[in-house]
């Protein structure tokens, strides 16, 4: 073979190698861009969805496009039980879920969802920022492999009904819809009501058709789901200072680099702070709005409800030990 032919062959091999390297690099780049699924059961009009969308944009921007995220609202990927299961199956990557639902997998997580567990918002906030919450979150992660990243304020839960509720006796035998998690049943059972689990997206129709007499949710949720259209009274029981946890599924978390894990933590913590601020603002404004719609917003004797419920805090429904309970009650004192 002539020197010229040898040179041409060498150039051809170099070109082939370059093209292969470029192809491998291109393929690797495509594979590196992962699309995540964020599932929740809330309406697109609610702050939770707005800040989930914001988080999706921030994740893509801060990871320089390594991750994109589609947000699936309003139970479009399943009920709350379904999306919790989806985390471990890897069919969803991120969810909002109530502490009571997470408590099914790791009991102590449910303590934040018990009625009258918190004295007020400041007590809740102190818990959200406490070592106790971090320890419980780590216990949940050890148990499930899924990773809680932030606690979002969901609001104070109140009872809506077509008869006024002023004291615990007014709820005797009342058929009240609750989410399908045990902690939501604590207050109704303590006052002699009949808690009835119904999926979130079926509640409006159940109220409209009289399947249940009442339901309970925070003011922003009552408005977003239009429960005020089919209930006359909004009774300010404030029985649960409720939370949503932002959780990343273990299968996805295990694929993230340390750098990206830190980005996820920062973004979802910022989103939680924004959710909390927006819900507090909405709670402050909505009493007047509901009254303008023709509803009666009813102040109740909260201390009477609290006295009825507190004995159940460490009863048979408790999924935490006495030490955990005592530590939570001591926070902020």
Automatic annotation (TrEMBL):
Q: What is this protein called?
A: ABC transporter substrate-binding protein
Which InterPro entries does this entry report, sorted A to Z? DctP_fam (IPR018389), TRAP_DctP (IPR004682), TRAP_DctP_sf (IPR038404)
Q: Name one GO cellular component term.
A: outer membrane-bounded periplasmic space
Q: Which NCBIfam families match?
A: dctP, TRAP_S1
Q: Which family does it belong to?
A: Belongs to the bacterial solute-binding protein 7 family.
User: GO annotations under biological process?
Assistant: transmembrane transport
This protein's species is Billgrantia montanilacus
Q: Secretion signal: which residues?
A: 1-32
Task: Look up the coiled coil feature and give its residue ranges.
Answer: 265-292
Its domain of life? Bacteria
Compartments it resides in: Cell envelope
Pfam families for the chain: DctP
Keywords (A to Z) from UniProt: Coiled coil, Signal, Transport
Q: Does the keyword Nucleotide-binding apply?
A: no
């Amino acid at each position: 073979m002539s020197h010229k032919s040898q040179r041409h062959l060498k150039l051809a091999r170099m070109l082939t190698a370059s093209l292969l390297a470029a192809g491998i690099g291109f393929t690797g780049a495509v594979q590196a861009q992962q699309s995540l699924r964020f599932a929740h059961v809330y309406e697109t009009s609610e702050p939770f969805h707005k800040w989930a969308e914001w988080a999706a944009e921030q994740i893509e921007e801060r990871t320089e496009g390594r991750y994109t995220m589609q947000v699936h609202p309003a139970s479009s990927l399943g009920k709350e039980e379904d999306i919790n299961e989806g985390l471990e199956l890897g069919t969803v990557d991120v969810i909002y879920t109530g502490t009571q639902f997470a408590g099914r997998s790791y009991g102590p997580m449910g303590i934040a969802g018990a009625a009258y567990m918190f004295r007020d918002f400041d007590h809740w906030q102190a818990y959200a920022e406490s070592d106790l919450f971090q320890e419980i979150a780590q216990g949940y992660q050890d148990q499930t492999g899924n990773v809680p990243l932030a606690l979002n304020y969901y609001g104070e839960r109140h009872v809506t009904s077509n008869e006024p509720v002023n004291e615990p006796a007014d709820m005797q035998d009342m058929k009240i819809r609750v989410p399908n998690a045990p902690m939501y049943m604590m207050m109704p059972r303590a006052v002699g009501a009949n808690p009835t689990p119904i999926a979130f997206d079926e509640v409006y129709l159940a109220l409209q058709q009289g399947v249940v007499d009442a339901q309970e949710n925070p003011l922003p949720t009552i408005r977003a789901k239009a429960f005020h259209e089919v209930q006359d009274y909004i009774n300010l029981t404030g029985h649960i200072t409720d939370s949503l946890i932002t959780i990343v599924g273990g299968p996805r978390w295990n694929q993230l680099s340390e750098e990206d894990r830190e980005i996820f933590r920062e973004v979802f913590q910022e989103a939680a702070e924004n959710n909390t601020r927006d819900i507090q603002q909405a709670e402050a404004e909505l009493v007047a709005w509901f009254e303008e719609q023709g509803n009666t917003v009813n102040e109740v004797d909260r201390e009477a409800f609290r006295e009825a419920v507190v004995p159940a805090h460490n009863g048979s429904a408790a999924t935490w030990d006495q030490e955990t309970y005592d530590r939570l009650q001591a926070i902020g004192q």
